[in-house]
Design a protein that fits this description.
The structure holds 2 protein chains of 2 kinds. Chain A is mainly alpha-helical. Chain A has helices at about 10-15, 25-30, 35-45, 55-65, 70-85, 90-120, 125-140, 145-165, 170-185, 185-195, 205-215, 220-230, 235-245. Chain A has 13 helices and no strands. In chain A, helix 6 packs antiparallel against helix 7 (about 125-140). Chain A is globular, with a radius of gyration of 24 Å. Classes of the chains: A mainly alpha, B alpha+beta. At the A-B interface, helix 5, helix 11, helix 12 and helix 13 of A face helix 5, helix 6, helix 10 and helix 13 of B.
Chain lengths: ~250, ~500
């Protein structure tokens, strides 16, 4: 049976009745037989980047209301709020301030909860890692405020050191540790840490070494690591892009 | 009996063992037989209009199937033929049933012919109907099962699609370097304020390349030096150099060669290694129109972003900024700092006339169009008396901000003849476009809350506009039409 193609009738009749603003709402409308499938297709394919001006405040609010937001999205939202807070419209400025507070509050609560759990079991490596990660992400969120960023990074650093002391240091912890050291601009220490671990044949570790050498301005070493990375097949798109630039991979 | 009821009965029947069913049926008919004994002159209820043996046999056939129905008929015959006379002998010995048993059987046989025929054919027909329903119910059950399986699969598919949709949605709204975002960022380049345009370029470069530290340097032909014009992410130690000798730095090399420098070039070129001070990752010539005006330098960026894509994005941003930069430089050369209002930062009427003449000339050469829009705050005097002139002029900053946003940074604003008037040069829109734009402005202004020192105030605005046309070719004519429109609204 031939499927009915989508048409534009919906847009002509869209003034009547329920008008969804989000794809999820449109989907509910279809379930209730209040909307045609065109409503969902249109809204589902009309998603735009959050930082596109003029900002869509309702969309920003909707995204902020979600719980499963990645740190990258939080950074993006924070950047948007920092821009909106300068608005001469006081309502918008207030909205931005509340948004920034909400993000900060979520991280503070996460840290508090993890600290409470750690208080009950101070040698729980998983809790220590999650705390270090929460502090590291908080630092990323405050990368434009040097003092606050530095404070969060040092907190993250102290928790990773505790994991090292407990000898529960794995690959995941290593990656976080090196990234914290890079953020603290402690490139020599980061290189020492990477050099001390025996994780040969791990392309991500080699890439991290190249990264640290790049910050240490050792370009010939960066080149060497990039050449070494070309021996691996399963590389991420991000690594491939860098390799294309350095060694024409 | 509807399908679901039948389905339930089938399920019940299926769950019972045949022995149990036979036991149940036997018990039932035994009870009927016992009841029958209390009616000794009516064996098998043959004299009654309603015959329980036949009726229950039909029920059994329709409930359990025709075979159980036939069993019921046989059992009924046995009860009426054997157990009933035994019961009579026990409870009514005076009747002498043993002597008359053969007579009894003969009389029963004759009387039961009709009920027996009805019973047997009824059991068969009811059994057939039940079988037909049963097979239909089986089909329906199979169909239901298939629907349930399909529904479960669809549920899983919908769940998976929802997750994919949510993930893709996240990727789209989290996308910082989309084409549409680049377009909106480029609108910000179109500022008449060169410093603002430069910082906007740096912000865009930071957003699209991930640069955490970058700067723009202007090349000074006379002194052969590069002077810092704008920076992003600066503030640390060593960020104090504001002038570079063009002959001894990579920035100078980029200006001289009109070529992009990339830090990995240090691996190949000795001369670049000598000039390197460890502060250049990407350095690209910045063009104003077609001449190299200066350079843009990326000093810090994540290693992951140091790739071909970023280099291309940088070149794209530079190419797209060239026209805007040229205009801002031209504007800066005409409008002197001392000619701008200290509160509104808008240039004076004299500057407006100079730039308007230039723009009209350019529109004529390019066969383009141009509009001017005069905005007058009618209650300026009243508000000035209440709050002071400075405070009311402060509102002009927000007013221009709104108009600038609506024009996508294409407009140029100036003070006009009176304190309560500002004027805008809006290139490339005609009379209709100016009219629509004016309506948008009025709509936004009326929907904005205006405040002076915490007190809400109303801005009473009128707008007059005009555009270049076959009849209006000169600046004076253009302004006359706009002013007339303004005056008409005052009447």
């Amino acid at each position: 049976m031939k499927e009915k193609s989508l048409d534009f009738e919906y847009f002509k009749r869209a003034r009547e009745g329920f008008r969804p603003r989000t794809a999820a709402a449109a989907l509910k409308g279809i379930h209730e037989r209040k909307l045609p499938i065109e409503a969902f297709v249109y809204l589902g394919t009309s998603v735009k980047p959050l930082n596109e001006k003029p900002y869509d405040l309702e969309e920003i609010e909707r995204v902020l209301a979600k719980r499963d937001i990645t740190v990258d999205t939080y950074i993006l939202l924070n950047r948007i709020f920092e821009d909106l807070i300068k608005s001469f419209d006081q309502e918008i400025a207030l909205f931005a301030a509340e948004g920034m507070n909400a993000i900060e509050d979520r991280y503070n609560k996460r840290i508090e909860r993890l600290k409470d759990e750690l208080g009950k079991n101070p040698t729980n490596a998983e809790n220590l890692y999650q705390l270090a990660l929460a502090y590291y992400e908080s630092a990323l969120l405050n990368s434009d405020k040097e003092a606050i960023e530095s404070f969060y990074l040092r907190e993250a650093f102290s928790y990773v050191k505790e994991i090292v002391r407990l000898k529960k240091f794995g690959r995941r912890e290593l990656l976080l540790f090196v990234n914290i050291l890079i953020a603290l601009k402690m490139y020599d220490q980061a290189f020492k840490v990477l050099d001390s671990v025996k994780l040969e044949g791990d392309p991500e570790i080699i890439f991290l070494k190249a990264k640290v050498e790049f910050y240490r301005k050792n370009l010939s070493e960066v080149f060497q690591y990039c050449v070494e990375l070309t021996q691996y097949e399963s590389l991420s798109e991000e690594i491939r892009r860098v390799l294309t630039f350095w060694v024409g991979y | 009996m509807n399908t679901s009821m039948l389905y339930i009965s089938i399920k019940l029947a299926k769950n019972q063992s045949p022995f149990k069913i036979i036991g149940e049926i036997s018990l039932f008919f035994f009870i009927i037989g016992v009841v029958n004994v209390f009616f000794p002159e009516n064996p098998g209820f043959l004299g009654f209009l309603f015959n329980p043996y036949v009726a229950f046999s039909l029920i059994v056939a329709s409930y359990y199937g025709k075979y159980y129905g036939f069993y019921s008929i046989l059992l009924s015959a046995a009860i009426v033929g054997i157990f009933f006379p035994l019961g009579i002998m026990v409870f009514y010995p005076e009747r002498g049933m043993v002597e008359n048993i053969f007579d009894y059987w003969n009389s029963i046989w004759e009387a039961s012919l009709l009920p027996l025929t009805v019973g047997i054919s009824g059991v068969y027909i009811f059994g057939l109907i039940r079988d037909a329903h049963l097979s239909r119910a089986k089909r329906d059950r199979e169909k239901l099962r298939q629907i349930a399986v399909d529904k479960a699969v669809l549920k899983q598919e919908v769940r998976a699609l929802k997750l994919v949709n949510s993930e893709l949605e996240k990727r789209v709204y989290g996308q910082e370097d989309s084409l549409t975002t680049l377009y909106t960022r480029i609108q910000d380049f179109q500022s008449v304020n060169l410093n603002r345009a430069l910082s906007s370029i740096l912000e865009t470069v930071s957003q699209f390349t991930g640069a955490t530290k970058c700067s723009i340097w202007e090349y000074n032909q006379e002194t052969k030096t590069l002077e810092l014009r704008s920076s992003y992410g600066w503030g640390g130690e060593g960020d104090t150099v504001a002038t570079l000798p063009a002959s001894e730095c990579i920035e100078g090399w980029v200006v001289r060669n009109n070529t992009t420098f990339s830090v990995k070039m240090l691996l190949q070129y000795e001369n670049l290694r000598r000039m390197d001070r460890g502060r250049n990752l990407f350095t690209a010539p910045l063009l104003a129109g077609r001449r190299v005006w200066g350079v843009i330098n990326i000093e810090e960026m994540p290693f992951e972003r140091y790739n071909v894509y970023t280099e291309k994005m940088l070149q794209l941003i530079i190419a797209l900024s060239a026209t805007a930069l040229e205009k801002a430089i031209e504007y800066e050369s005409i409008v002197k700092q001392e000619d701008t209002n200290p509160i509104t930062k808008l240039p004076s009427y004299t500057n407006f006339m100079t730039i308007l003449e230039n723009r009209i000339e350019r529109a004529r050469v390019e066969h383009g169009t141009l509009s001017v829009i005069i905005v007058e705050v009618r209650n300026f005097g009243l508000l000035s008396e209440m709050y002071g002139k400075r405070e009311v002029l402060g509102l002009f900053v927000s007013l221009v901000g709104i108009m600038q946003e609506l024009s996508e940074n294409k407009g140029r604003f100036f003070h006009y003849k009176n304190d309560n008037q500002i004027v805008m040069i809006y290139p490339n829109i005609d009379f209709d476009g100016a009219s629509l734009y004016s309506l948008d402005v009025l709509d936004r202004i009326n929907n904005t809350t205006w405040e002076i020192k915490g007190n809400k105030v109303q801005l009473d605005l009128i707008l007059g506009y005009s555009s270049l046309s076959e009849k209006i070719e000169e600046a004076d004519q253009l302004l006359e039409v706009a002013e007339n429109l303004l005056e008409m609204q005052k009447m």
